[in-house]
Known about the structure:
alpha/beta; Rossmann fold; Hypothetical Protein Pfu-838710-001; 2 domains; 10-stranded mixed beta sheet; 9 helices; 15 strands
Amino acid sequence: MISQRKYKYLRIDLKADFFSGGIRFSELSEEDAMKFQENLLKTMVQIENTFFELADTCSRNCLIICDRGAMDASAFISKDKWEYLLGKNYWNEIELRDTRYNHIIHMVSAANGAQAFYTLEDHSCRSEGVSLAQELDQNAAAAWIGHPYFDVIDNTTNFEQKIRRMIECVCHKLGVDTGDRLKVNARKRKFLVQGPLPPDEAFPKFSDFDVVHHYLQTTTPHMQARLRKRGQNGHWSYIHTIRRPAVENQVVEVKTQLSQRDYQNLQAQVDESHFTVYKTRRCFIVTVNFVRRGSEENLDQPEICQQSQYFQLDIYQEPGHERCKGLMLLETYTSLDDEGIKKCLPKFLNVVDEVTGKPEYSMFNLSLKEDWKNSKKYCSYMPVNGQDPHLVKLARQKSQPCQHINGNAAT
């Protein structure tokens, strides 16, 4: 499907080259495991850079899919050793995770939620039992928590539908219209969270980011433009977003990754009618267990399954408008119905209302300096994920033809 849409497709498969050579990670000592991950990461980065440079010179839009990504190494060694490797090699997680790949897809292992299909037979690269495979899969997913475009494809459907969900997810991010071939029903949901914020121990493994938004001047009141700076420990990634007027009832957002210099230059266009928005963004995965009734042949043997949902909790910080004081908004991207998403909402948070599509919880309106009653810029119509209200088509500028997509954790 991608090739039919005038994309050149490249694939980087490092797993087959290394693990089919007889290496068994479970047999390595702690020190050998660290050395292996360091050398593997160096090799991975060099191979990826080679593909990225080739893609940059390609006359067509180019899609690169990586079987593994740079952050995967952190899933197999301790946090202390990972931080040691980062310092030793002058790496940082913002560059390895956020700016290196445009999109992360975690394909949940069959060991988590579809154990009946997990087997070591005919898998030369797989040697782990179910329990270890579950742990490694969870670690691999946690390694990518915090990437701005991270999707988890779990085992709540059969394998064919799982693959379709993955393809749908990729096409959606590329802005490829799949028509009726793939049902697109995932959308962003937003919830109001009442404070106080629970202690860190109440959360599953999470990653916190500092996020700064600036709204920019535009040539028409129907267009929105903003800058986003997002980072940890002094390392930043920069995004420029333009939301264009609806075309055929569909909102188009153009997102462009920026250099620090471009980001600073564009700040000259800041719209002074908006406050700068400061947030702490906490990213985490919630996993819940549920019982799925058995097949017609085995109605008396229900199956225990898992549902994994990726969340972002935006905690507004000062300085800002009084209306944003203490504000916390929880967001997720999902195709679940109301009942399904209700089961997945974090129980440790006091979620008081769904505010998807409500203009008073739009960041554009929240950042306005004027009182809403007196403001001519208040946007009362908020499209929910684009058209009516299920889809935003994410267009990519021609200046960014190369899409690096990492799908970590094989099924």
